Amino acid sequence: MPGSGADSGIGPTLGVEEEFLLLDPATGATVPRASRILAGQPPLPGGATLQRELRATQVEAATGICRTAEELGEQLGAGRRALAEAARLHDSVIAASGTAVLSGPATLGDNDGRFARIDETYRGMVADYEACGCHVHVGVPDRETAVAVMNRVAPWLPVLLALSVNSPIDRGRDTGYASWRIVQQARFPGAGVPPYFASAAAYEAEVARLVDCGALVDPGMTFWLVRPSATLPTLEFRVADTTATPGEAVLQALLSRALVRRALDDLSRGAPPPRLSPQVAAAAVWAAARDGLAGTAVDAVRARRVPARWAVYALLTHLRPALEETGDLGTVRALMRGLYERGTGAERQRRALAAGFPALIALLTSRA
């Protein structure tokens, strides 16, 4: 149960789910071997789990409930190592990328239950949908609080995306985007930044309407980039691409927790949440998906373009008190410094591709 506790003393608890691709080590193409790999039940830290994803070419590693950056980093590293070793036993490697740089045959027909209903509902949209994300769960006291916090963190979701972009290559071509995964996800009904909700009841009513309209398979499914978890007492951030390294996943988690903590402080002071234009919010997500940290961003509150790194600075300024309270400010600064020095995952993928496709595959699998 990732991040299912509400508070750890230093801040809300954390948990992370990371989705990975399974590749043929010789060709770099995705291979449908998830069931065989997971059947071996690789050893994991306490509370951590492995599970299937929509396509048989994907696997997911979820941490247990974590309270510090160090604990989270250890569990993320252990999960990646366990999956890598299990994949090796089945002539596969795991790749940390938001999209498949080279895809094998589609894997429809390998699903049953809920996955089968998803295949039937979305059809060609999911037949080759191998997108992989990094989902952060932050503990919250209750569902009413989760919705109130969701309203307050919404403007910052595009910045979290810009920091995580790691899917510029899709099926052998450079898409021109830093996160092609988000472009693919935008095809689904209700994707992107969630609208404002006045209460948990209003949120539940809207989800129920989307299910009744046939746009969602069940109430546990939404495509918003942040949402109250359907099964855990957490707010789930679903904006980031699967990150290139465990450290970048830790960065996403610490920033997400700080956003929740800052939102809780604002809520206790009675500060109203910003009301975003849905079209401007969509433009902010699109700009982050296109350019990552390399170009301009859209300030979703002020509805204007700004340099992407200015948007990151604004986020860190907004979160500094919360990061100081949890003792995470130094860790976040170090992780940000490393990200700026190396470049985003998308930038690293493009540099590797310039050296040849084998170099790209080596990059994607070396730190998994």
UniProtKB/TrEMBL annotation:
MF term (GO), any: glutamate-cysteine ligase activity
Catalytic reactions of this protein: L-cysteine + L-glutamate + ATP = gamma-L-glutamyl-L-cysteine + ADP + phosphate + H(+)
Entry's EC annotation: 6.3.2.2
GO biological process, one term: modified amino acid biosynthetic process
Pfam families: GCS2
UniProtKB keywords: ATP-binding, Ligase, Nucleotide-binding
Spans traversing the lipid bilayer: none
Family, similarity comment: Belongs to the glutamate--cysteine ligase type 2 family. YbdK subfamily.
NCBIfam families found in the cross-reference section: gshA_cyan_rel, PRK13517.1-1
Protein function: ATP-dependent carboxylate-amine ligase which exhibits weak glutamate--cysteine ligase activity.
Name assigned to this protein: Putative glutamate--cysteine ligase 2
Organism: Amycolatopsis rhizosphaerae
